[in-house]
Amino acid sequence: MDRRTLLAGGGTFLVAAALTRDAHGRGRSVPVTPEDSRFMQLAIDQAKDGDYPFGAIIVRDGKVLALGRNSTKRSHDPTAHAEMVAIRAFLEGHEPDDFKEATIYASGEPCPMCMGAILWCGFKRVVYAASIAELSTKIEQIDVRAWQIANAAPFASIEISSGLLAGNAMRLFSTEKE
Ligand SMILES: [Zn+2]
Q: Rounded distance, CA 49 to CA 71, Å?
């Protein structure tokens, strides 16, 4: 199935992805570690300065190598989601191959655009805080889960951890306008 087929057959694709989730399992669920909490808090700290409260950081070998926060308003770029900003920052100092051993921490579950980018980059792992369902209560979201994107990518093998510090990430939406 090529990308155009996926776009054209969106509804069918979602049902198929849900049914085949366990059969393919390209997005493998893994538990979080204490170190993950520290890095996630850094991603959430980035979110505090975002145009919308979303932040992301890229970590490899225990080192933070790139930061990103939602910059859609200040950069006049609707694609400037935190994950995209972090990926572009990473590429300023690293080669694409360097993504292979890297983890991206995101304060919100990556949207289809960002999850697609994460898979194309070949990240080893993604860890996110608030889920799309949680985020949808505060801000518009495309209702496709990160694991659905991962499972639809035959070339990808990525570990996914979810829900870490989700309460901290969601609280930023309550304080956004204060
Ligand atoms: Zn996104």
A: 9
Cα distance between residue 85 and residue 10, in whole Å: 27
- For residue 82, with 0-12 CB atoms within 10 Å meaning exposed, 13-18 middle and 19 or more buried, which class applies? buried
The residue count of the chain comes to: 178
The string of pLDDT tens digits covering residues 129-174 is 999 999 999 999 999 999 999 999 999 999 999 999 999 999 999 9
CA 108 to ligand 1 center in whole angstroms: 9
**Locus of tokens 């006049």:** 76
Q: State the distance from the centre of ligand 1 to the C-alpha of 77, rounded, in angstroms.
A: 12
DSSP state of 73: T
Residues forming a β-bridge with 55: 69
| 82 within 8 A of 47, measured Cβ to Cβ | yes
- Mode of pairing for the β-strands spanning 63-69 and 125-130: unpaired
Q: The pTM is what?
A: 0.84
How many alpha carbons lie under 13 Å from residue 8 in its C-beta half-sphere? Answer: 5
- Distance (Å, whole) CA 80 – CA 77: 5
Alpha-carbon torsion, ordered 81, 82, 88, 90, to 10 deg: -170
User: Annotated active-site positions, please?
Assistant: 83
Measured in angstroms, how far is the CA atom of residue 12 from the centroid of ligand 1? 22
